[in-house]
Design goal:
Two copies of one chain form a homodimer.
Chain A (H helix, E strand, L loop, with lengths): L8 H7 L9 E13 L3 E7 L7 E6 L17 E10 L7 E12 L14 H4 L10 H23 L3 E2 L5 E2 L11 E3 L15 E3 L4 H11 L1 E9 L12 E10 L3 H22 L1 H11 L5 H10 L3 E4 H11 L15 H12 L3 E7 L15 E9 L3 E8 L4 H10 L8 H5 L8 E7 H9 L12 E2 L2 E2 L2
């Protein structure tokens, strides 16, 4: 117990099954969500953030005239309460606290925006420092924290070392989109800049983490990445977190085994450790109210595998009038991915062996010379959740492919050189944390999954 | 088991206590650290990165002429080995593998720099993609990963939610040092820049995480932070990771309890989970070869507390001829901190209640009007390891202090406003991850604790 002298509401939830707890003296602190009374008895819904659920306080103004003051305390006020614990088996809330003393800690000025009435998610994006006090964001940021812990746990338990790849990088030649420049000057004179050359913010830790896989076998990055793309969509943010595991002595099959294991572990852990939050999303956010059962089905399923070529064949045979073309060589769009996933595989599916021209230079060329050992993991309702690949470990193949794509070798000599010094097969993948949260919660906009979202033109605080 | 068809060397270390394991067929893969032979029998020290220690392979060229090829394989080559497991109780290494087949996976070009001879740490900083294959860096990056996991574990177990505060921020007015600008332009026209205003890289997540503490009670950030300071020292980097817990309904005492608990838990966990690595640092890096016993003593001790005023008094009474002044009001230097810690407290000590003028604007003013509720945690051999404070939760006090220090309120209105909406006592602290690693390992330079260190003029890859 870190703090002494009071209980957390999460402690009270543990007390509820203790037969000797009834009548025990408790002292709790938190913020008022609602406060109503009938002139004699009042009810405060108190939340201290220690768990998703709050605690009902009952104050009897007839029995104790001093408690009349409590009826003036409004939504958002912080209070300290001394009282007794009362189990209420069978009731909606399993216990309540009968207040003997209610002490005001901090009131709210009248312009406090988080009143009881519902606000739109759009409005609340402008007040990221206060939207945290709503049920929706409490559930979101709890799931985010539990998910992050689950990711670390799964990978650490499976022998992966956590490597923090750099945010500031001199490698802006990866071609993964537009980048932000990092500078201490205002004139773009990068030779005389802080690092003596152009510096930018990372778009992916993959290239930097590969040397660690080629030393320690199994490693992962988990950190922020950045895209300076001027796209205003519900799934793009300029700053987002990525998990990028990388495995040595591994091929695409091994890679997919880790992806499947990670996703299933995370779903199970979130359903277990964030049960009230997930029930909230199921009941109030998901339109069909089937979120939990859909996730459980994915966690219990065996993921299927289709090659890209097979997938295109399925689209062709479907007879469906798709909006976008799906000829061999085209990138699959979300409508195609969802058809394959929901109608063909009827569950999570890996699409493998994509045409080389729609994938990155570092992916391993297959023997057909046309496709690469890449895979995307598709899930029902969303489409692509993860992308991965076996990396090209053969020096000659890699240099040839870079040449074909006009990617200069010199800035990436260190990366290419890994193929000259004890090269081994290796593979990896990248998961976008926020996309995963969208999938787990059913929330519709990436801006609501990030504490302080950054998008073009938006930098609140 | 993620990968099938072969064992990790860490698996073999688990087999060594299994009485039925002798003679079992094994298949392992890794990189050659050393290879020597007497013309008849050869010995390869193989490392696959699954654990700090490697595995000795024995190949009998007399018994199997095909194994003569293996004697040509050099340091750094990657190989796959089929053989049998042989426990060697009492020997330096608890088992060896008798090779039946040694397959070359990847050779090394002659310019492979990581030959058996010792390289300086300075030299290896220029090849961050290859230095990973040495014992020193293997130990360092393993301890880094285990320490990161321990930090997450301790905080999650104690009810702290993990919050990822933003890297790109519009708040450059915190006064915590020089900042990097983030831009997509080359002309400093920030009004027409990506975010429509000047953007920079965060120097601390504290201000951004406070609203989350004032919603969920206990939270922490753990992410990269940046300083554009032109200082070339052994303890400064331009990019480093910080852990910043923040607690609501908490004062400086509660804050110190978490700091002490976190440090002790991390020391114990690293000593337990990174035992071979810590033995390596104890024996080969620490000058006095007492690293482990010193850390164990800290983990077992009860941290002392002295006020700043008492500490200055101790310095005055010491009779020691310090290099720097230590009058009341001066910042304590490392020599003072180490004297207090090593000679007065004889162990870890918190110094509390510093003069307000040497601490940040957001720290809570004490009743004396001269000191603030801040604390630094000092440890023997290093000095300051963590700094924390209770935050000023009183609106009037905070605004007054900002005015005294000429800090404009407008850009931080959101932060100040938290004091108008259900304000409560709260406190927090910041731990520099790399400084903690320096302390735990005895390594001398922060550049060696970071996968790709960034310092003025240095941006390797």
């Amino acid at each position: 117990m870190i703090q002494s002298g009071y209980q957390l509401i999460s402690d009270l939830y543990k007390m509820k099954d203790d037969s000797g707890a009834a009548g025990k003296a408790v002292n709790i602190r938190g913020w008022i969500r609602t406060n109503r009374d009938n002139g004699h008895i009042g009810f405060i819904e108190l939340n201290d953030g220690s768990c998703f659920s709050g605690c009902q306080l009952v104050y009897d103004m007839d029995a104790n005239g001093e408690l009349k003051e409590a009826s003036k305390y409004l939504t958002g006020y912080s209070i300290e309460v001394s009282g007794t614990f009362k189990p209420t088996p069978g009731a909606k809330q399993p216990f309540e606290v009968l207040a003997q003393e209610v002490l005001l800690l901090g009131s709210c000025d009248p312009d406090f925006p988080m009143q009881k009435k519902r606000h739109t998610l759009e409005f609340m994006r402008e007040i990221p420092h206060l939207r945290t006090r709503t049920n929706t964001f409490s559930a979101l940021f709890r799931v985010r924290s539990i998910l992050c812990a689950a990711i670390h746990d799964y990978l650490q338990q499976n022998g992966f070392l956590y490597i923090t790849t750099p945010i500031i990088t001199g490698n802006d030649a990866e071609g993964a989109g537009e980048v932000f420049t990092v500078t201490t000057r205002n004139d773009a004179d990068y030779e005389n800049d802080f690092f003596g050359k152009h510096a930018c913010m990372t778009v992916s830790g993959q290239l930097h983490v590969e040397p660690f896989a080629l030393s320690y076998g199994r490693v992962y990055t988990f950190g922020p990445t950045f895209r300076a793309e001027n796209s205003n969509t519900t799934t793009h943010a300029s700053e987002f977190w990525m998990i990028e595991p990388e495995l040595a002595f591994a091929d695409l099959q091994d890679d997919m085994a880790v992806m499947e294991g990670l996703i299933k572990y995370c779903i199970k852990t979130v359903l277990e450790k964030a049960a009230p939050e997930m029930q909230f999303f199921n009941d109030l956010i998901d339109k069909e109210h089937t979120l939990i059962s859909r996730l459980q089905a994915v966690a219990d399923s065996s993921f299927k595998v289709l090659t890209y070529t097979e997938a295109v064949e399925c689209l062709r045979e479907s007879g469906v009038d798709f909006k976008y073309p799906y000829d061999w060589g085209c990138d699959l769009k979300t409508e195609h991915e969802r058809y394959i996933c929901e109608q063909v595989a009827k569950g999570p599916v890996f699409i493998t062996d994509y045409p080389k021209d729609i994938k990155a230079f570092y992916m391993r060329m297959n023997d057909d010379g046309k496709t690469v050992a890449a895979c995307d993991m598709l899930v029902p309702g969303v489409g692509e959740l993860i992308g991965g690949s076996q990396r090209e470990e053969r020096y000659d193949h890699l240099v040839k492919r870079m040449s074909e794509l006009d990617i200069p070798v010199e800035p990436l000599k260190w990366y290419v050189d890994l193929r000259r010094f004890g090269t081994v097969k290796h593979a990896g993948f990248g998961v976008g944390l926020e996309r995963f949260i969208l999938y787990l919660t059913g929330i519709g906009n990436i801006r609501d999954t990030i504490p302080y979202p950054r998008t073009p033109g938006n930098l609140t605080f």
